[in-house]
UniProtKB/TrEMBL annotation:
The chain crosses the membrane at residues 107-133. It comes from the Bacteria. Residues 1-119 form the Type II secretion system protein GspF domain. It comes from Nonomuraea turkmeniaca. PANTHER family: INTEGRAL MEMBRANE PROTEIN-RELATED, POSSIBLE CONSERVED ALANINE RICH MEMBRANE PROTEIN. One of its GO terms (cellular component) is plasma membrane. It is a multi-pass membrane protein. It is found in: Cell membrane. This is Type II secretion system F family protein. Its main location: membrane. Keywords: Cell membrane, Membrane, Transmembrane, Transmembrane helix.
Length: 134
């Protein structure tokens, strides 16, 4: 969507192109917004209708603020995309850190019996044989 806006396309056309690229229910909601904007609807209430949507809420609020303030929409979308990438990166780092914690129990259950059988029992058997057999 940002690339379309930077290329000079209107918001309605950029929204339509993004909706077609995304597809699914999310794309359908963006297509609806695009059609409303092409028909001449006021952008603020049109985008505000999607403010409660979990997937499009941040986009909706950003586009509503841009429509109210007259801020360049491409800059707003770039900042929104940067925030989404940062959040995804933080979530993936947190997930990667949790993997180590989750792997401790299975590794312990696999390696501890092997360590006991191969490391501890031979030592005990050796000590027992020297103590029992003088």
């Amino acid at each position: 969507m940002t690339a379309c806006l930077l290329a000079g396309r209107p918001v309605s056309a950029a929204t339509e192109i993004a909706a077609n690229a995304i597809g699914g229910p999310l794309g359908e909601r963006l297509t609806w917004v695009s059609s409303q904007l092409r028909l001449g609807a006021d952008p603020e209430p049109t985008w505000a209708l999607l403010a409660d949507d979990p997937a499009l809420g941040r986009l909706s609020r950003a586009m509503t603020r841009a429509a109210q303030s007259g801020a360049p929409v491409a800059d707003v979308l770039t900042r929104l995309a940067d925030d989404a990438r940062d959040a995804a990166r933080a979530a993936s780092v947190a997930s990667a850190r949790r993997v180590g914690v989750k792997a401790v129990a299975p590794l312990g259950l696999c390696f501890l019996p092997a360590f006991v059988l191969l490391g501890i029992i031979p030592v005990i058997a050796g000590l027992a044989s020297t103590i029992v057999l003088p």
